[in-house]
Design a protein that fits this description.
homodimer; 206 residues; alpha/beta; Helicase, Ruva Protein, domain 3; Dna Topoisomerase Vi A Subunit, Chain: A, domain 2; 2 domains; two-stranded antiparallel ribbon; 8 helices
Chain lengths: 206, 206
Amino acid sequence: MDHYPSKLFEETVSELAKLPGIGKKTALRLTLFLLKQSVPDVESLGNAVINMRNNIRFCKQCHNISDSELCEICSNDQRDKNTICVVEDVRDVMAIENTTLYKGTYHVLGGIISPIEGIGPDDLTINSLVKKVSDNKVKEVIMALSTTIEGDTTNFYIYKKLKDHNTKLTTLARGVAIGDELEFADEVTLGRSILNRINYEDYLVK
Amino acid sequence: MDHYPSKLFEETVSELAKLPGIGKKTALRLTLFLLKQSVPDVESLGNAVINMRNNIRFCKQCHNISDSELCEICSNDQRDKNTICVVEDVRDVMAIENTTLYKGTYHVLGGIISPIEGIGPDDLTINSLVKKVSDNKVKEVIMALSTTIEGDTTNFYIYKKLKDHNTKLTTLARGVAIGDELEFADEVTLGRSILNRINYEDYLVK
């Protein structure tokens, strides 16, 4: 039971401590930091957060975060609408976009199936993906979820939903990371990279 | 050069990444968390921060954070106004208050002297402390700063400013922490705790 010298101060500490990974000590430190910043600086932080929550939208096609009804990628004529990469959230879209190697579009699930956290298939945008595949001539669905138990479960659930449609289902290549020493690769990854070995000429092209 | 799918999203990430100890990855994670919270919850975070910065005050006597002109401790008749404990910031006040063993008042410096961070004596409330000691019959000033180079420097600076006044200058007892095994105490602390040993009966009273 800490005794705070100010209600305003206490409220800020307790609000910040609600954020994931931020305990009370960190919240105190952040609050003291904010007190030392200028009023406009603190207002721009507070307003950015409120503004975003109130005005952000989700692309009606891929469900990615967007400032308009259709995100930049879905509204871009240059992007292949018949190749869809299924990802967990916006961070994955940003990571793949940063490679500049992908010219298709995305489908953002908004999470992965996780019974422990109480997230089931209906909490995600899986039905919308199935509908998209049924309604359109989607050539390929690339399942690009994390290789965790939850990611694999979600991949398999999507696979079962889509396997009877006339659509190619692929997943990211798993293997030894480029630049990594072979001896430090884990056994499972190394084993897969031998089984799924690729033509050397295909590798040279990259 | 990340390509964000939304300006609103990007603004929140970049505002959060300005906080100390929060990098871009953490800011992204926090922003995604905020997006999943309800509008009232996010508004109460944003408004708490803005509200605090705009309306918080500092006690005109001890400079601690306060909601009014005089903080609760300085306006409490039961507290000894002639014993002043000098601390770095509000966290130290809260830590000492939690012991419930101190009945004096405080003087919050607002930092410690740190040439590296460009903080000199004039950036702190040292002059106000000296004035308080000159003007009033202060019995005792307890210097309770951290035992770091900066803390020791600040202690010594205050000591030089106050030593010619008719006021007792003390500092916190340093020694082996209660509950700690002797063999794990560092040499400097252990050495000090032998030199500054106390009467056993005084220890029993605590």
